[in-house]
Amino acid sequence: MNNRLDSIDLHMIRVLHTLLTESSVSRAAVRLGMSQPAVSAALRRLRELSGDPLLVRSGVGMVPTARGTDLVEPMARVLREAQKLSVGSTRFDPASARRVFRIAAADYLDPAFLPMVVARLRRDAPGCSVEVLALHSGWDYRQALASGEADIVLGNWLEPPTDLHRAPLFEDQIVCLVASDHPAATRGLDLEQYLRAEHVAPAPLRAAGEGVIDQYLHRRGLRRGIVVQSAFFNLIPEMITRSRLMLTTGRRYCEHYLRGGFAVSVVACPVDFPPLTYYLLWHARSHHDEAHRWLREQVRASLA
Fold this sequence. Notes:
The chain is an alpha/beta fold and 304 residues long.
């Protein structure tokens, strides 16, 4: 036995809601873009399905019955929820929005880049707050993106993950950072000297893995001597000034500390590394969301 509700589709709900709020077949026809006979036929069908007149004559007009009045808000709620299924129906207004943006990033980015992103978000979406999350080996950023714990991830990979949406942000030349009084600061480096040097490296982002520098070296059959590994990348320049340690990373990061007055020097790296490519990653769950799309646009616009 068929349920009468099986015969009610979204179009019928829209027709009935319009009839009840307009209390007029002719006005409802205009709003719906239908002919009056078609609306009248729909009303007859709705009366049959509901077992109630829904609209009745009152003087020269029509008024909803008690049953019809009770249906107005439930139907409005159904139509509002259905609207959310339409592609592009949910518009994000940054000036009035209230939400949290969660950005996961490696701290070896250009130190000026992420502050520019945050400043842009605060300027254009003043009602939104920002959480900056740290990428580290004990954190599964793929799962964080899938669950909504993070909205986007910023970082660099020799081979970026293929199971996520991604967009390249910028490239950076790989150089070495040493103390100003390090021998390499005046004489430069050859490959043998580079491999024998005392290297400091950030902790890898994977619990069982290597950073992009050592991945590339090992693919070429080369190995450097890492004597210090630090989970706190921004402490490394201070370590360098007090030792003979050498850091291999992007030029943007190194030049930030040159401008900051640290007693460090940037030295050309004798290994023919490809440029570091930094990526913006996000999950398919947020690919079409207007707020997430706006967030990704602001990250890319900050590069300008």
